[in-house]
Structure prediction request, 304 residues.
Amino acid sequence: MSAIELLAGQLEPFATVKRDEPLSRHTTFGVGGPADLFATVRDAEALKRATLAAADAGVQTFVLGSGSNILVADCGIRGLVIDNRARAEIVSGGGLTYRLESGTSFAAFARKMCRAGLAGLSWAVGIPGTLGGAVVYNAGAYGGCLADVLRRVRLVEAGGRDEWLDAASLGLVYRGSVFTRGQFVGKTVLETEVEMTPGDAKALLATAAAHDARRLGAQPRGRNAGSIFKNPPDNPAWKLIDSVGLRGERRGDAAISEMHCNFFVNYGQAKASEVAALVEEAERRVFERFGLRLEREVAFVGAW
Ligand SMILES: Cc1cc2nc3c(=O)[nH]c(=O)nc-3n(C[C@H](O)[C@H](O)[C@H](O)COP(=O)(O)OP(=O)(O)OC[C@H]3O[C@@H](n4cnc5c(N)ncnc54)[C@H](O)[C@@H]3O)c2cc1C
Prediction:
């Protein structure tokens, strides 16, 4: 029996396991080939068990949040994809400290905090994804970022160590962390702890509504993965891409949005290779014109 089949048998008692699951169903781009093994877990202990079982079996693992910041290759991902739907929450600290499993929806939690009159996350109401993904990228918008409220995270590593680390050890910077810099390979975020401050629900909801309106006016609807590139310090990426004549550029059903040139969209049946061709074209033209290397925010994952 193959290592994948043996692993499937070990996961089945506590996870929903599928074989050759198309990842286009699980990414906001709507793009991506199959995962050899796709296991849905619904609590942090199952997430931990799946991570450790795969490590023991020598099977490569990819932890999937909401798939809102990745471009999965057309050939998919070999090994195990863990679909993280661990969403429990524990409140303490006089109602200000929230311990959240890493599959919790970041936007839904942020909106709930505004309604409850707890300040710190009104900027996050429009950011898709899970708390786990938000830690990896230090998700942020409109002057705020997760680092502002994150106190600590619970991590498990392939060797079995399970520990809480202070947020200060995560090297959180603009859209980056020790995870994106390759320093935490094999570590999975199981839980996060955030600390809110008392605020006024009416004012927080008004701020959230203003952010919603700003997003609606500036960003395209439909299938995409948010900003493709990080913004260089002196010039937003969309301006650079626009100025090299790529607004609306298409490859098959993949396109650079007419509305916002740092958003690449899937108009229907786009392939990852077509999105990648647009990404490479933007990188090439911006480098040729400005001598500047655009840095990808969206991660290319799987068998490219
Ligand atoms: C319309 C749109 C708007 C967006 N706007 C913003 C914005 O304003 N600001 C912003 O910062 N981002 C934005 N994004 C990008 C995206 O929402 C964030 O980066 C989000 O935090 C990604 O979370 P996710 O759960 O979808 O991660 P995924 O895309 O599923 O995964 C991303 C990476 O994180 C890793 N990962 C996920 N969970 C875990 C875990 N538990 N443990 C270890 N590794 C893990 C994955 O393995 C992968 O490498 C936007 C995206 C879209 C589609």
User: Anything to note?
Assistant: The longest strand covers residues 187-195. Helices lie at 3-11, 44-57, 106-115, 131-137, 201-218, 237-243, 272-290.
